[in-house]
Amino acid sequence: MSSTGTEDLEAFRRRARDFARANLGPASARTAAGALRNDRTDEEELAEVAREREVQRMLFDAGLAGICFPTEYGGQGLTLAHQRALNEELAGYEFPTRFQAPTLSPCAAVLLDFGTEEQKRRHIPAILKGEELWMQFLSEPSGGSDVAGALTSAVRDGDEWVLNGSKIWTTGAWWSDWGLCLARTNWDVPKHRGLTVFIFPIRQEGIDVHRIEMLNGSKEFCQEFMTDVRVPDSDRVGDVDDGWTVGTRWMFHERMLTNSPLVTVPVGFGHGGTGVSSLVAIGARDAGRLSEPVVRDLVGEARMLDIADRELRHRVGQGIATGVMVDQSAALTRLFSGVTATRIRTIGFEVVGTAGAAWTDEDGQLAHSADDYLMRQVSQIGGGTTEMARNVVSERVLGMPRERSLDRDVPFRDVPRGRPSSRS
Amino acid sequence: MLLALSSDQELFRETTAKLLDELVPVGELRRLREDADGFGTGYWRRGADLGWTSLLVGEHHGGGSISGAGLVDLALVAYEFGRHAAPGPLAVTNIVAATLDEAGGDRFDGVIKELLSGEAVATWGLAEAPPNDGLDSVLLDVRVEGDEVVLNGVKRPVESGGRADYLLVSGRTGSGLSQVLVPARTAGVSVSPMHSVDVTRRFSVVAFDDVRVPLDLVVGEPGAAAGQVELQAGRAVAIGCAEAVGAMQTAFDLTVEWAFDRYSFGRPLASYQELKHRFADMLSWLEASHAVSDAATAALASGSADAAELLSVAKAFIGDYGGELMQDCVQMHGGIGVTFEHDLHLYLRRHTLNRAIYGTPAEHRARLADIVEEQEGLA
Q1: Per-residue pLDDT at A1
Q2: Residues of B near A (CB-CB distance < 8 A)?
Q3: Are B252 and B282 in contact (CB under 8 A)?
Q4: Fold observed for domain A135-252
Q5: Which run of H or E residues covers position A319?
Q6: Contacting residues for B342 by C-beta, under 8 A, at least 6 apart
Q7: What integer pLDDT is reported at residue B66 of this predicted model?
Q8: What is the pLDDT of residue B260?
């Protein structure tokens, strides 16, 4: 790499290609199917996590981690074009999926935006080396979409803060290392003005990680209970009571998902590729229905949606990067990919016929169609619901009037938090 | 439309938009409703002067692109055509000019010159009478007899068939396809007007009854035109998609404007969450339509291996989702949205027209299934 300028794109591409060929195994079919299938044991899951830490370290040592991260924090300081080239060269290879979201974006992205110099120097290189997996401590049991209504409290005690409360919908918190947490530090001001962001290790006394069983048996999602967790003030991100400034960027990074320049996603992988519609076609073939015109119509529709989703991501990513589109346009891709993924799951179920109701272990791809269908709304819920994305698009992109809210100009402690108990 | 245009492309797009604003404002479109051709020769020549008909033709034939990728530049014109619901045989004239340039040799130099100057108009006959109006069914018979070819069959719908000076006819010679450039006034050619869903685009049934023309009016080799026909169809899809997206953009913009202006129950339509959420959905479809249209055009222009897949994605997606967007714009307007007086239908018509020609969404989904099957080795 030249010290005077950016590494030549073609040289970079060759370097990435040589690395992948020499060091990486093939992508597993399992990752292409997407998250949340109940198809591996805890031991297998932990082995995959360990392998991903290893691969992340190999990428780091080869100068292929953190392509768009600044060099002073261990990144490569290169461009989006380099990141895209890496995505192309890694197509078909194993890669550390679990490090991308939420570790690199939004967590590391938020640290880059708001972290202190010390926080960035401590954590970003560690993340890029595969030493730290991060989770978002954002949603709470009391409200998923109303993120700023967080009830987890942080109370100052000298140079420390004491946190109490509960967070939920963290994917894989049981094998993760650090949390990025939104907590309430002031109950006497309106809700957006009393929040602060903290970071802390997940494995510590006072944090109880409970694994939630989803309807398909998956236990990837977790809920955490925090009891008197002590966090030094030096692990506060952003100013006291200014957590919503951080939170707004945080959610922007979350909506960017795999479109973020900070994230590596091999071309053809899961979302943004054509992997899911290919599985639909394989399911139809295994069910012996691929020659039926109605099934072919559905297979064609699934491929159409897969590619439209991919191309929309490219367009919006480019639009935001060049300033032609406002940052909030990221909600467009979140909305579109959520809705289309749901539709593709439905098609996948439709084309397999009765195997959608009952199957055997020998049925291959057919066996997962029912669970995928039962879980199909996940793509419209996780990472912020599509309803919230529609609010963002209409209000922040199109400039339409905001919804009336009853919690805007009152101290948060006076905001109703449930149905008033009736007197009988 | 592309997010990032070069300054030359932007100037070209803007000049085209201004010319359309000047020559074919909506009042003029309404007047042209009664015009047999749907456009005037003066209008077409002004556009040709700007370069509307030269972009797919090589420089040695007097053509030339703005960016080096003529189809990408032409898609900018098509997008503006859609935004203005503009008249004129944009796709077919360009397709014929490109094919004569690429496959015709020097004997068509004179015709190309006439097309580039706007002096003459050409059209292309691909589809035939139902049920042979599908993407892959070409039955019109092209028979070689000595130094002549004889054409028998019917083409419909043929765009600007009543106005065109030259008809490029795709027909069958044995098991292969042939293309013949038939001058419109040749004996045995009969043209009868059809009804059209568009206000200004005209279509005809063109019958060929023992039409004899010299062998040198065959473009390329007899029986060997399948590849060229496929390329022409791809170009028609790309141009039609760019137009359709332009029409969607105008309809969407008009409807957003309306939602802010129109008050019900003391508040603007734009303040109702139910409607706001539909606008969000529509914007996601609109931006995805821009994205797939641009990707397909770029892929075809560069000869990329995934061009066929992207073209079918664009045609199917823009047809289906664009149709929903258009009709939801009508719904948001209420009763005024289904009147002739309101402008919305001008764009709805253009989108509807382009949805139905050069392969319906269902036909393109079927093509996508073929592509997936082959890619995944499932055949």
Answers
A1: 42
A2: 3-4, 256, 259-260, 267-268, 270-271, 273, 276-277, 279-281, 283-285, 287-288, 290-292, 294-295, 309-310, 312-313, 316-317, 362, 364-369, 371-373, 375-376, 378
A3: yes
A4: Butyryl-CoA Dehydrogenase, subunit A; domain 2 (2.40.110)
A5: helix A293-321
A6: B333, B336
A7: 94
A8: 98
Q: Are A295 and A377 in contact, with CB atoms under 8 Å apart?
A: no
* Chain centre to alpha carbon of residue B104: 22
Q: How far apart are CA B129 and CA B156, in angstroms?
A: 6
pLDDT at A364 over 80: no
Q: Which of A95, A49, A85, A176 is closest to A76 using CA atoms?
A: A85
What's the pLDDT score for residue B261? 97
Predicted confidence at residue A290, as pLDDT, reads 95
Whether the CB-CB separation of A334 and A341 falls below 8 Å is answered with no
Domain identity same for B233 and B355: yes
Q: Which parts of chain B sit beneath pLDDT 70?
A: none
The pLDDT tens digits of the residues spanning A24-38 come to: 999 876 554 555 677
- pLDDT, residue B203, reads 98
Shared domain for B11 and B113, answered yes or no, is yes
CA A93 – CA A87 distance, rounded (Å) = 10
Q: Which fold has domain A271-397?
A: Butyryl-CoA Dehydrogenase, subunit A; domain 3 (1.20.140)
What single string gives the DSSP state of each residue in B286-329? Answer: HHHHHHHHHHHHHHHHHT-TTHHHHHHHHHHHHHHHHHHHHHHH
> Which residues of chain A have a CB within 8 Å of the CB of B313?
303-304, 307-308, 311
State the Cα–Cα distance between residues A153 and A187, nearest whole angstrom.
9
pLDDT at site A33: 52
Give A135's strand partners.
A179
Torsions phi, psi for A150 (to 5 deg): -55, 140
Domain assignment of residue B294, yes or no: yes
Name A163's bridge partners. A154, A229
Interface predicted TM-score (ipTM) of this complex, two decimals: 0.96
Number of domains forming the structure of chain B: 3
- What is the pLDDT, as a whole number, of residue A6? 81
Phi/psi of residue A63, nearest 5 degrees: 70, 30
In the predicted structure, residue A2 carries a pLDDT above the cut 50? no
Report whether A202 contacts A172 (CB < 8 A): no
**Are B113 and B137 in a shared domain?**
no
Helices in B85-225 by DSSP H: which ranges? Answer: 90-103, 109-117
| Contact indicator for B174, B226 with CB cutoff of 8 Å | no
CATH of the domain at B24: 1.10.540.10
| Residue among B271, B284, B287 minimizing CB distance to A400 | B271
Q: What is the CATH number of the domain that holds B191?
A: 2.40.110.10
pLDDT in tens, A291-331: 999 999 999 999 999 999 999 999 999 999 899 999 999 99
Contact A335 B271 (CB under 8 A): no
Each residue's pLDDT tens digit, B89-122: 999 999 999 999 999 988 999 999 999 999 999 9
Q: Which CATH homologous superfamily contains domain A9-97+117-131?
A: Acyl-CoA dehydrogenase/oxidase, N-terminal domain (1.10.540.10)
Burial class (CB in 10 A: 0-12, 13-18, 19+), A318: middle
Q: How many CA atoms lie within 13 A of B126 on its CB side?
A: 22
Among A296, A329, A391, the residue with its CB nearest the CB of B369 is A296
